[in-house]
Amino acid sequence: MTFTLAVAGKGGTGKTSIAAMLITWLARERRGSILAIDADPASNLHLALGLPLPMTVGQIREDLGKQNSPDGLNGMTRVDYLDHKVRMSIEEGVAMDLLVMGRPEGAGCYCAVNHLLRQIVDRVGQAYAYVVIDNEAGMEHLSRRTTRDVDLLLLATDPTMRGLKTAEAMIHLARDLDIRVGTAAVVVNRVHGCVSPSMQSALAALPVDVAGYIPEDERVGELDGAGLPLAALDGNSPAYAAVAGLARSYIPA
């Protein structure tokens, strides 16, 4: 059975770095195939994982819209054509595979195509032991999935009240969008020293647990700034060590 983990939160809180470190930990510590899904239109997860940027699902949708005749589908049905294209777009890494969503969904005549793509992406994910989704600033991708079950939803915040309020709003948004979440928890990222007393009080008042505190880590910043993969991090990295501790607590063996 697939374990689905999603990372969401306010923009700029380090969601992609957290997702990449979780994927790196899974590749090292858990047996089973991993599919990383980059659902952020900015599409930076491939850099953090050290993989090339593949064709995106958005590009597949746009390319299909340019087909003027069935001949362009090489005799395949639309469903088979999209399924083939999505599977071919998956970038295969040594320890994980990557699927990039790309631009947000279009409207109008794209509606039927978008629905087919959602079904195909969900079906592809079911073939993996772990699916890790790096979301855009909101949770639009999760709300658009046909199978909206998430085993673990990590809401990233920096040690600011604005970031925390966004994470809190997403807790309620997940319920409003009928996203079926097994466990939701907040992760406080880029902590320098201790969080403020007001932040501690606000965290204690949340309706979900605080999964962990990830310290500010110069090495993460250096790698991110240079566009280098975070796979270079190990237990000597305070940030990676914190993510590893979180993962051991929340991701079953």
Protein architecture, described:
The protein is an alpha/beta fold and 253 residues long. The chain is 42% helix and 21% strand. An eight-stranded mixed sheet has the order 3-4-2-5-1-6-7-8, sandwiched between helices. The longest helix has 16 residues, at 161-176. The protein is globular, with a radius of gyration of 18 Å.
Question: Can you name the CATH architecture?
Answer: 3-Layer(aba) Sandwich
Q: What is the number of E strands?
A: 8
End-to-end separation: 12 Å
Number of domains: 1
Radius of gyration: 18 Å
Q: What best-fitting shape do the alpha-carbon axes yield?
A: globular
Question: Which descriptors apply to this entry?
Answer:
globular; Rossmann fold; alpha/beta; 8-stranded mixed sheet; 253 residues
Element layout with pairings:
Elements: E1 3-9, H1 15-29, E2 34-39, H2 45-49, H3 57-65, H4 78-89, E3 91-92, E4 97-100, H5 111-125, E5 130-135, H6 140-144, E6 149-157, H7 161-176, E7 180-191, H8 197-204, E8 209-215, H9 218-226, H10 238-250
Parallel strand pairs: 1-5, 1-6, 2-4, 2-5, 6-7, 7-8
Antiparallel strand pairs: 3-4
